[in-house]
Amino acid sequence: MRIGLLPRLILGIIAGIIIGFVMPESIIRILVTFRDIFGEFLNYVIPFIIIAFVAPGIADLGKDAGKLLGITTGIAYLSTIIAGFSAFFVGKALLPGLVTSGSARNPEEALLSGYFEIAIDPLMGVMTALVTAFLLGLGMAAIKNKSLYNVLDDFKGIIEKVIQKVIIPILPFYIAAVFANMTYAGEIVQTMATFIKVFALVIILHIVYLIFLYFIASPMAGNNPVKALKNMLPAYFTAIGTQSSAATIPVTLRQAKNIVSEDVAEFVIPLCATIHLAGSTITLTLCSMAVILISGGVPGIDSYAAFILMLGITMIAAPGVPGGAVMAALGLLELYLGFGETAKALMIALYLTQDSFGTAANVTGDGAIAMMVDGIKKMFKMQTA
User: Fold this and answer.
1) DSSP track, 285-326
2) 3-class secondary-structure state, position 169
3) Cα–Cα 20 to 30 A to 268, which of 133, 296, 360, 381?
4) DSSP character string of 208-231
């Protein structure tokens, strides 16, 4: 029987804690060596992830699909950044009371180091990759020749395979190594307590944001917000199982047709599955703030404003695999929030333990976006294509 990613991740955390308690320093250092090597590989791949997903995603959005394409994209992006800023201000108000600041040592000051390091330098920096992706994406959208698009689409397929066949399978061992080191250092109790509190806050904020979206969107389509939200629950619970917006599209589409016109549902739902990640943005924002707080830092609006605004763009066409959003966000965590190896590992662990709920919030929010688009379409008598 195949074990899903979430159970494997939980097993990795448990195994890491046990190893940290019972194994000698020499074994922990072997694990830390593995962590460092895999971390170098992850840093090497991050620029490729950005180019592979962002460039084709922007090119796809540039294809002719009527005025509603721009409207849908704008609403989805606005929803994503509102979700991010809402999470920041909620986290700023509540997280200091839930998380003990400085309860863990600086995550970049691991008490144990590996036996050796293997440097794998990225071919370009994160910002260079972002600018390159925007340039390629906008350029491909402007020209009719699809040769470069096909090349980048194939490249995206390669990177998706790397994520699915290499990174995702190794992540539980990577997380186990991080938790073994933290346990050996005596930091695990506070960290696990933080995980539980942040997890609860994330789920609550997901629900509150969905209620907000539906109360805004439903009147635009002439629907009752409570009934509309209840109608989308099958998509919500399906996404919890699939952990993928793309894999949930058939159910999301079926339910959306009950509250909006069929042509709008068929246009908006597949598009929003790749560009509307409000739930994931809430999770990434709150989890990253928690990591900063337990490290003794203070989350600032300046760095988070840039982080959230870029996050809404960078996660366009994030791969339809579990953990795709956090993989696409790793570069931004490093660039804007200064995350290093251990901080990124904590983020991956925090994010993936609730990935299914973030995905569920994403796809359920797509129903609200569809109602907004449907209302605008009827008001201005627009066409979907």
Assistant:
1) HHHHHHHHHHTT----HHHHHHHHHHHHHHTTT--SSTTHHH
2) helix
3) 133
4) HHHHHHHHHHHHHHT--HHHHHHH
Domain coverage including residue 359: 5-380
Q: Cβ of 21: how many Cβ atoms within 10 Å?
A: 11
pLDDT tens, position by position, 281-327: 999 999 999 888 887 888 999 999 999 999 888 776 565 555 677 88
- 228: Cβ contacts below 8 Å, ≥ 6 apart: 214, 217, 218, 221, 259, 367, 368, 371
Count of structural domains, the chain:
1
Angle between helices 262-275 and 67-98 (to 10 degrees): 50
Q: Which helix (H) or strand (E) holds 333?
A: helix 324-337
Tokens representing 337?
Answer: 């929030």
The residue type found at 256 is A
Per residue in 101-154, pLDDT (tens digit) is 655 554 445 457 778 788 888 888 777 887 888 788 888 878 877 888 899 889
Instruction: Calculate what percentage of the chain has a pLDDT beyond 70.
Output: 88
In-domain check, residue 293: yes
Contact 51, 137 (CB under 8 A): no
Any idea what the CATH number is for the domain that residue 354 is in?
1.10.3860
Identify whether 325 is part of a domain. yes
- Residues 6 or more apart whose Cβ sits within 8 Å of residue 7: none
Amino acid at 17: I
pLDDT digits (tens, 9 = 90+) for 156-200: 889 888 888 888 788 888 888 888 887 887 766 667 777 788 889
Tokens matching residue 193: 């307590």
Q: Please check whether residue 385 lies inside any domain of the structure.
A: no
* Contact present, 283 and 362 (Cβ < 8 Å): no
In a domain, 85, yes or no: yes
